[in-house]
Predict the structure.
Amino acid sequence: MSTHTTMHKVQNPIQGIKFAIIMLCLGVGILPGARAETAAPAAKSAPAASTKPKIQVADTIVAVVNSEVITRHELNDRVTLVEQRMKQQGIAMPPAAEMQKQLLERLIVDRAQLQLAKELGIHVDDTMLDRAVARIAEQNKMTLQAFRDQVEREGTSFAKFREEIRDEITMQRVREREVDNKIQITESEVDNELAAEAAAPQTQQEFNLAQILVRIPENASAEQIGERRKRAEDILGQLGAGGDFARLAATYSDSIDALKGGELGWRSQDRLPQLFVDAVANLKQGEVSAIVKSANGFHILKVLGKRGASVVKVAAGAAAPTVQQTHARHILIKVNQVVTAADARRKLTELKLRLDNKSATFEELAKLYSNDLSASKGGDLGWIYPGDTVPEFERAMDALKPGEISEPVESPFGFHLIQVLERKTNDVSQERQRMAARMAIRERKLEEATQDWLRQVRDRAYVEIHLDDK
């Protein structure tokens, strides 16, 4: 299968400094690994009048995750930063003890993910990190120096910020490998999705929901499930007595969006789990659902907003909507432990020079050097619809004229030389409609699968918590 059919649309790993900091608030986890520090050398003895050496207390350990530790200093840093962001967002603070427990739990899950990434050989090198940071600066319309100054005004050293971003990209990549690439969608599911779309009204609902999740451990006993339901019922009781949803989410929710008040953001109903849609279908803005049970645990949902969204349908016998398709080919050099980003870019620059000098054909070089499955076809990707490729590839491709060859283009898959062969305007085909339905199903499954995977990562790690140790 060619790259454009296997590359699904992914979110940019970082969307600017404010997004990067918000990721901390979401608990997605971008703090670097830390180990317990040893005590500093004792101060030199004072004159005879004071013979006792000064004792400096070493940083304490608040948790052990497999073979690594999380320190009190690391936890305090996270608490301080998240408190600042929650105040800026107007989210009521949970009790300090509960805040520490929430953030420590997220640090544990983050550390377990980073350890798994290391086991799998997933690594973000300095060159890749430099480009990611440069993209953040560019997206914020800043020079790199101005961006660096802004980060440090926010209270974070630039070196630490870089390592936070490295960890965030690393965790995203391990999630893509362990979750995204393992989601399966059957043809019967696609058939059912298309049938539901055909029967749906012209205007569908979009929801802005918040949730509180009480997670059920993997392989939980009936007693554990009962205890977790009781916890959810207690939270629902507090909400019924006038408790603030955002504050209770930040205090009790086990979801990664807890410290954002549980807010999920605006989503169309076909992008939400059906059990969520059913639970809030008859609720008004501001109302809270009953307890909803899923494979991951017990959910309580609040409707923050509702609105209608128009749905474009093609009536029987009517002309289908048209889109521009691009026929393109590429040469892909992947970055790995042997081939660095600099090596890949240099190789493609050499190949482009050969193409410009007409000393070789694109097809010949693709067959010889491309790391993509399309190499056997001379790099030919066929006709590409908008959204078939990752944004970096699509932007570069769209900027080319037919016959033109790009400079080396970086994407999450490596570096590409892209050539546009021709373009055409075409009707949205039945195949395309099935692809759109498949993407909607995938998005619904992805969130539940991610939550389930994070639960497994946490439950399978060896964890000792020493938060209350004196």
Remarks:
- The radius of gyration is 26 Å.
- The chain has 15 helices and eleven strands.
- The chain has three domains: 10-37+60-181, 201-314+436-465, 322-427.
- Residues 322-427 form a domain with the Chitinase A; domain 3 fold (CATH 3.10.50.40).
